[in-house]
Amino acid sequence: MKWLAAMGLLVIVACGGSERPADEILVSAAASLTDAFAESEAAFEAANPEIDVLLNLGSSSSLREQILEGAPVDVFASANPSNMTQVIAAGATNQSTTFALNVLQIAVPAGNPAGIAGLADFATPELLIGLCAAGAPCGDFGRRALEAAGVIPSIDTEEPDARALLTKIEAGELDAGIVYATDVLSSSAVDGIAIPEQFNVVAEYPIAVLTEAPNAGGAEAFVNFVLSEEGQAILQRYGFESP
Question: pTM above 0.70?
């Protein structure tokens, strides 16, 4: 599997990374898609051996900024529509398609040593609580869920994306955090606590080929794969729902 940390793409841009191999496509995707898109990459490349997929994973807001600053991206897959809307408004793509849905879940270290019961516990100063940073989709969604539940959180750390937050929970550095249900499903080191439907947020994931994609044909083929029956089946195996 070939992937870049989101910040690592800035190095590519600074070094003239638009001169990529003609058979390569750069897919900038929300960190919560890490596992599902790793399998999608493998399946797509098996069916299209002439195309090499490079995954650039990170917060959708960071990926959006990279695109608006001229990063040589072929495909953008965001964890929320608002970041995609800004990319469209800037003329970096013409349209997008929603390809997956996700919901929030409370993640705690395996065994739930702090005895977290629900969102109300996020207001307890004695607990170590983490959220994704404001501006990142999981951060904005988490705050919306807490606000809907009438909870003012006592936040100890704000992480750049859901996977970074999950890593701290897995290590036992936090008592609880709000991530996506798919993140909880991906890890044997955490347990999940459901967020009631009336407080939860459904995340819509749009995908698009960028207007200035260096490999527009390969990008279109990858997007079509994600939208295909096989691509949707892969996403569902990792806990995503079809739109």
Answer: yes
